[in-house]
Specification:
The chain has 181 residues and is α/β, with parallel strands linked by helices. The chain contains five helices and seven strands, in the order H-E-H-E-H-E-H-E-H-E-E-E. The radius of gyration is 15 Å and the shape is globular.
């Protein structure tokens, strides 16, 4: 696992041990950032369920202004912090060890890009989206990246619309935007 492009291109990332972390493969990251195009430049990014921090670090490497990494597991946040230091990106990163509900309900930040790759089959995705919508945590023209199991087939409702929906092996990748009124 590595940073694919940008200022920290090629930096190898450490991943916390255990079955609870499922790193996003380089092929999926490349496809994701191709979909985002130049969106990360200057962006304020949230890497929710951060794991190793690979998605937020990729955004920082590609020019995001700041990334916030949130994970409930100390080992995951430790790996994300170590990866940020290794990639020389820690000066543009903040780290929070807390559960996603507590963070989303208490943050005063708003984000241009939100990455969500929660543990599959735990039911975290829809509640997180609901809080994001209710608290208006996504900035105008912002995007939400969701990764879930390929078999997941729950429809989204307002205020989000699906821009992209693609399967990569056992992963399903969704790119969401807020619907215009």
């Amino acid at each position: 696992m590595r940073i694919v492009s940008g200022s920290a291109r090629g930096t190898k990332l450490v991943c916390p041990e255990g079955l609870s972390v499922r790193p996003t493969h380089d092929r999926v990251k490349e496809a994701l950032f191709s979909m985002l195009n130049t969106k990360p430049v200057g962006a304020h990014v949230l890497d929710l369920f951060a794991g190793s921090g690979a998605l937020g670090l990729e955004a920082l490497s590609r020019g995001a202004e700041h990334a916030v990494f949130v994970d409930v597991a100390a080992s995951s946040l430790s790996a994300a912090r170590a990866n940020a230091e290794k990639a020389h990106l820690s000066n543009r990163a903040s780290f929070f060890q807390t559960d996603y509900v507590h963070f989303l309900e208490n943050t005063e930040d708003r984000f241009d890009i939100i990455f969500m790759d929660p543990p599959y089959f735990e039911g975290f995705l829809l509640p997180a989206l609901q809080i994001i919508a209710e608290r208006k945590l996504l900035r105008e023209d912002g995007l939400i990246y969701c990764e879930t199991d390929a078999s997941w087939n729950t429809p989204f409702s307002a205020p989000f619309s699906v821009i992209r929906d693609k399967k990569y092996g056992r992963a399903r990748v969704l790119l969401l935007s807020e619907m215009s009124l």
